[in-house]
Design a protein that fits this description.
Strand content of chain B: under 5%
Largest interface: A-B, 12 and 9 residues
Largest sheet of chain B: 2 strands, antiparallel
Number of helices of chain A: 4
Largest sheet of chain A: none
CATH class of chain A: Mainly Alpha
Oligomer: heterodimer
Number of domains of chain A: 1
Order of helices and strands of chain A: HHHH
Order of helices and strands of chain B: HHEEHHHHHHHHHHHHHHHHHHHHHHH
Shape of chain A: elongated
Shape of chain B: globular
Distance between the termini of chain B: 76 Å
Structural class of chain B: mainly alpha
Number of strands of chain A: 0
Number of helices of chain B: 25
Chain lengths: 109, 633
């Protein structure tokens, strides 16, 4: 634990924050501007992991292991979410023969 | 209550039979053949009567005065606990016997009278529902159950007055009865609420137990009794709420006999007799009752002198007789009032059924100016009608003599002026009844083309039974003057608490009876002289009349007075509300709210067109705004 923490602390905290923000922004823009549902899902994962990275970094810098434990929980939830998202995707492909998210505009009353 | 009485639970059956009859004839309305509904209804009411008779003996053999039987716990909120319970005591038994006994006879009679009517099944369904409600009214062990019955009979009265609803005038009469009763019911329910507020209970036994500890003239009691009196005045057609009863004659004649003569209109008298303990504590209210009763008795009798519709005469006579019962109540002679109620139920039901038989025979003709000479054509109807006329006039030994004479002697014991007025009313009663009798049955037949015939047996047999009751009903309560022991009054002593009046000496009493007999004979002779010997026929429509005749013929213009004082202002106020307030104020507001909502809706619906990219964008934008908001605080 001590070693990993010190290994993480080799790189300054600012760099972690910058990297995370960049990754998060890429993910966010991907979600907003791409139409392919697979890519949107992947972008969501990217946003998740940028947050995970930040949490792990803060955890190391504060010498508080609970942040790293939390990351595991987030990963598990993300895995479940991916399972649901992918199955929706499969059903979508079967029904409308496309993964274009704008074809789902019938999801209204 | 002391231990339970065996077989007392039979009391459930008494209202259950009419309810069953209502369900059968009401639900199988379309399937029942003609006449079957009437037979089913009559059998069930007769069963009710038989059970009532059994109950009478059950209670008598048990040696107890009263029994309460609880069906279920109806309202239990906090410390308020109102069971749905029946009270079987001497007063309610008397009423049950009258309601089911007279009711059964009238149901049987109706089989003949309503034969061939297209809605005959509905008729019997409603009659059964009425009997059920009336039984609830008289059997209820608290004011709320009484109130259910009270409203139920009001509803059935409305339905049955407007039974021939294709005639707009009949519908108008039904509505009039309903609205007039509503005024009374408002007072009644306010009285019950105040009663509950004062005693924290509406059950008879608890209220009376608490009331007996109060002082005479307590303001709360005076107010309660006055409010209950308003209800009784509405239901029992007394001044000022009596005008609905003559109009209620629009209903079929058996309805007039059952509801508007024998039972429903006596509900007010029953209720006051039941609350005798409360009324004894309120001398002011008793004086009001005397004033109302006596005025009604005389005024209605005077109006009856000039009416030409056979049913209208009887209706005013009913109002007048109810006034006598009120007089007796006001004098504190509750059991006398109930006794007159009972004999009145016999002879007035008989008079109405006789009138129905005449109308039936004359093919729907109700105007006595067009009748005459029916004595030979309809002997059974004539003799039964004669018996009832003698009874209502108070000729001994017919039933009306005993009950009316008892009221008169109570009035004499109280105040000589009351006696003179009451006797005057009785003489007028005698005159208009014999006027009716002579005009209908004596002389020559005045309507050409009519072929009157005696009614079928299903109608004449009830007439004969009722005639026996009307003749001998008075022997239930023979005063000590004639060697009797007032068994009826004594029987009611445990349920109603009559004031002890000063006994008038038997020589005075004999003198009074002789006086009234002489005057009655004089009046009968006058009527005979005028309507048989001189064969005077009342003036036809449009013929000139003297001022007083015209005043009486038009019922003192009381309907017109009510129309000007209450109806016109009320309807112009309603019109003002409708034309000005509703169209100019309320409608724009309501429409505006609706329009604004739908405009806003059509604007915002554009946001939700299913475009997921847009949703995501809105979500992110929202979160960003939120973060900026938090950071700037």
């Amino acid at each position: 634990m001590k070693d990993i923490s010190s290994a993480i602390q080799v790189i300054p905290l600012d760099h972690y924050i910058l990297l995370s923000v960049t990754l998060f922004s890429i993910g966010l823009l991907g979600v907003l501007f791409r139409r392919n549902t697979i890519i949107i899902l992947m972008c969501i994962e990217l946003m998740f992991n940028s947050v995970n990275l930040l949490v792990a970094a803060f955890s190391a810098y504060h010498s508080d292991p609970s942040g790293q434990v939390f990351v595991f929980f987030i990963m598990i939830v993300a895995a479940a979410e991916v399972a649901v998202g992918l199955s929706i995707l499969v059903m979508m492909k079967r029904n409308v023969d496309s993964v274009d998210i704008n074809l789902l505009n019938r999801l209204k009353w | 209550m002391v231990g339970s009485i065996p077989f007392i639970n039979l009391a459930y059956l008494v209202p259950a039979f009419p309810l069953l009859g209502f369900l059968i004839t009401g639900l199988a309305n379309k399937r029942l053949k003609h006449n079957h509904a009437g037979i089913i209804a009559s059998i069930l009411i007769s069963l009710s009567f038989i059970v009532s008779v059994i109950l009478f003996f059950v209670l008598r053999n048990s040696g107890q005065d009263a029994a309460t039987i609880t069906l279920f716990n109806w309202i239990a909120v906090g410390n308020m606990n109102i069971p749905f319970a029946f009270l079987i005591d001497h007063l309610s038994l008397t009423m049950m016997l009258v309601v089911t006994g007279v009711g059964a006879l009238i149901h049987i009679y109706s089989i003949g009278y309503m034969h061939g009517d297209e809605r005959v099944n509905s008729f019997f369904a409603q009659m059964n529902l009425f009997t059920f409600s009336m039984l609830l009214l008289v059997m209820g062990a608290n004011y709320l159950v009484l109130f259910i019955g009270w409203e139920g009979v009001g509803l059935c009265s409305y339905l049955l007055i407007g039974f021939w609803f294709k005639n707009p005038a009949f519908n108008y009469a039904a509505r009039k009865a309903f609205i007039m009763n509503r005024i009374g019911d408002l007072g009644f329910i306010l009285g019950i609420i105040l009663l509950f507020y004062t005693f924290k209970s509406v059950s008879f036994s608890e209220v009376f137990a608490q009331a007996s500890t109060l002082k005479i003239g307590t303001p709360a009691i005076t107010l309660i009794t006055l409010l209950l009196l308003v209800g009784a005045v509405g239901k029992s057609a007394q001044i000022p709420l009596y005008t609905w009863l003559p109009d209620a004659m629009a209903g079929p004649t058996p309805v007039s006999a059952l509801i508007h003569a024998a039972t429903m209109v006596t509900a007010g008298i029953y209720m006051i007799a039941r609350s005798s303990i409360l009324y004894n504590l309120a001398p002011v209210t008793l004086n009001v009752i005397i004033a109302i009763g006596l005025t009604t008795a005389i005024l209605a009798a005077i109006i009856g002198l000039k009416q030409n519709d056979i049913k209208k005469v009887l209706a005013y006579s009913t109002v007048s007789q109810l006034g006598y019962m009120f007089l007796a109540l006001g004098l504190g002679a509750y059991s006398t009032a109930v006794f007159h109620l009972t004999t009145h139920a016999f002879f007035k039901a008989l008079l109405f059924l006789g009138a129905g038989s005449i109308i039936h025979a004359m093919g729907g003709e109700q105007d006595i100016r067009n009748m005459g000479g029916l004595r030979k054509k309809m002997p059974i109807t004539y003799f039964t009608f004669l018996a009832a006329t003698l009874a209502i006039s108070g000729i001994p030994p017919f039933s009306g003599f005993f009950s009316k004479d008892m009221i008169l002697s109570k009035a004499f014991g109280n105040n000589i002026i009351l006696y003179i007025l009451a006797l005057g009313g009785a003489l007028i009663t005698c005159f208009y009844m014999f006027r009716l009798l002579y005009l209908v049955f004596f002389g020559e037949q005045r309507l050409a083309g009519a072929h009157p015939h005696e009614s079928p047996r299903v109608m004449t047999v009830p007439l004969m039974i009722l005639a026996v009751l009307a003749v001998f009903g008075g022997f239930l309560n023979i005063p000590s003057l004639f060697g009797g022991n007032l068994s009826f009054s004594t029987f009611l002593q445990s349920a109603t608490f009559s004031k002890v009046s000063e006994e008038i000496s038997s020589s005075t009493e004999i003198g009074l009876i002789l006086l009234s007999m002489t005057l009655l004979c004089l009046v009968i002779w006058l009527a005979y002289h005028r309507f048989v010997q001189k064969a005077v026929v009342p003036a036809a429509e449009g013929e000139s009349m003297s001022f007083f005749s015209k005043l009486i013929y038009n019922k003192f213009y009381i309907d017109e007075f009510y129309a000007v004082v209450f109806e016109k202002p009320f309807s112009s106020f309603s019109n003002f509300l409708f034309k000005k307030v509703e169209t100019n104020v309320l409608n724009p507001i309501v429409d505006g709210i609706g329009d604004a909502t739908s405009t806003l809706g059509s604007l915002t619906r554009k946001l939700q067109r299913g475009n997921i990219s847009f949703y995501l964008f809105a979500m992110v934008a929202g979160i960003l705004l939120f973060i900026i908001f938090i950071l700037t605080i």
